[in-house]
Amino acid sequence: MRTVAIPGMAQARRKLIWEADMGLFGGLQVTWWLLLGVLLVGIGVMVGMDMGVGTILRYVGRSDGERRVALNIIGPHWEGNQVWFILGGGAIFAAFPLLYATAFSGFYVVMMVLLWTMIVRPLGFEYRSKIADPKWRNLWDWSLFVSGAVPMIVFGAAVGNLFCGVPYSLEWDMASVYTGSFLNLLNPFAISTGLLALALSVMMGGLMLMHRSEGALRERARRAVAWASIAAIVLFAGDGVWVRALSGYELVQGPRPGTLQTPLEQMVTRAAGAWGHNFSLHPALWLVPIAAFLALLSAYFAARAYRGALGWWCGVIAWAGVIGTAGAGLFPFMLPSSSDPSVSLTVWNASSTRLTLLWMLGFAIVFVPLILWYTSWAFWVMRGKVGSERIARDEHAY
C-alpha cells in the first residue's frame, strides 16, 4: 500500500492529516466519534449519579431509615440508566470494531473487575431490605459502596491511560497483543483521572439526594457535594497541567486519503506537549475546559444555596466539559500504543465501513432521542421528595 508523508512542522502535519481525511466517510467517522462522546457523557451523568449515591451511602445515611431513603431516591431509575452502558459498548463494537477488540482484550482483567462489581450492585439493591438484621444490611451497604466507587475509578482511569498510551502491538493480521500487565494500567496519572471521575460521580449523586431528600440527609449530601466539587476542580486543573508534561502522540504519515486506512501503514511519533496541539490549532476548543471549570464552580455554589436541581444540570455540563476536553486533546487518536506508537488506533483506521456507519446513524437518530425522552419522563413521574414514612408504607420499596 502506498503511503504519503506530510511535510512541515508537527502542528501543520496534524492539520493537513485532519483535513485530508475529511469528506463523506470522514464526516461519518467524526460524527460517530462525537456520538461516542455523548454516550460517555450519558454514562458519567446517569450511571455516575447512581454510583455516586452508593459511594456516599454510609456517609449521608447514619441510620437504616436514611439509607433506605437514599436508595429509593435512585431506586426507580438505576436499572434504566444502565442502558447508557449498553449503548456505549454497542457503539464501540459496531462503529469502531478494531478499538473494541483491542481494548477489551488488553483491559481483560480490568473488565472482569468491572463486571464483578456490576454483578454485586443489583444484588445490593434487591437483597438489602429482605432481612432486617443490621449485619445483613451493613454487608450490602459496603457492597454498594464498592460497586459504586470501583467502576467510576475504572472509568476515569481508562481515559487517563489513553493519554499515557496502552502497551499493545498488532500482528501482521491485525491481531492485538497486550504487552503490559495489570499494574501498568494503575499508573499515577490514571489513578488521578480515576479519582476525578469518582469526584464527579459523588457530586452528581449528592446533588440528586439534595434535590429529593429532607433534613439531616439533605444536609450531609450538601456537604458531600461541596467537597466533591472542590476535589473535581483541583483534580481537573492538576490533570490538565500534568498532561502537558506527558509525551503525546503525533500522526505524521499515513495511507493516502481514499485508500484503505490501516494502523500497519502509518507513522506516529511522540513528543512532549503534543496533547495540546489541537488546542493550539483551534483556540475555540479552550471553551470546553473553561465550561467545565465554570460548571463545577456553579455546582458548588448551587449546593451552598440548596439548589439541588440547578446544581445537577451544572454537573451535566461539567461531565460534558471534562470528557470533551479529553476528546479534544486526544483527537484523532482513540487508543494510542506505548509499545509501538505507529500502530495506534485512530478515528480513521479503527472505524467500520461507510455503510455500517450510515445504518447506525439512522438508528441513533431514532433511538437516542427516544431514550432521552423516556428517561426524562421517568424522572418527571417520580419527582418530589422521598421520606421514610412513604417507604414504610410501600412493601416494594428498597
Span from first to last CA?
60 Å
Radius of gyration: 22 Å
Shape: globular
Low-confidence stretches: 1-21
Our estimate of the beta-strand percent is 5-15%
Query: Residue share in helices?
Result: 55-70%
Query: How many DSSP-defined strands?
Result: 7
Strands side by side in the biggest sheet = 1-4-5
Largest sheet: 3 strands, antiparallel
Q: Please trace the helix and strand order, writing H or E for each element.
A: EHHHHHHHHHEEHHEEHHHEEHH
Rounded mean pLDDT score: 85
Give the count of structural domains.
1
Helical stretch tally:
16
Care to describe what's here?
The protein is mainly alpha-helical and 398 residues long. The chain has one domain (3-101, 199-393). 68% of the residues lie in helices and 7% in strands. It has 16 helices and 7 strands. A hairpin with a 5-residue loop joins strand 2 (168-170) and strand 3. Helix 2 packs across helix 14 (308-330), helix 8 runs antiparallel to helix 9 and helix 11 runs antiparallel to helix 13 (287-304). The radius of gyration is 22 Å and the shape is globular. The model is unreliable at 1-21 (pLDDT under 50).
Any descriptors?
398 residues, mainly alpha, three-stranded antiparallel sheet, two-stranded antiparallel ribbon, 16 helices, 7 strands, globular, disordered N terminus
Task: Please give a quick description of this structure.
This protein is mainly alpha-helical and 398 residues long.
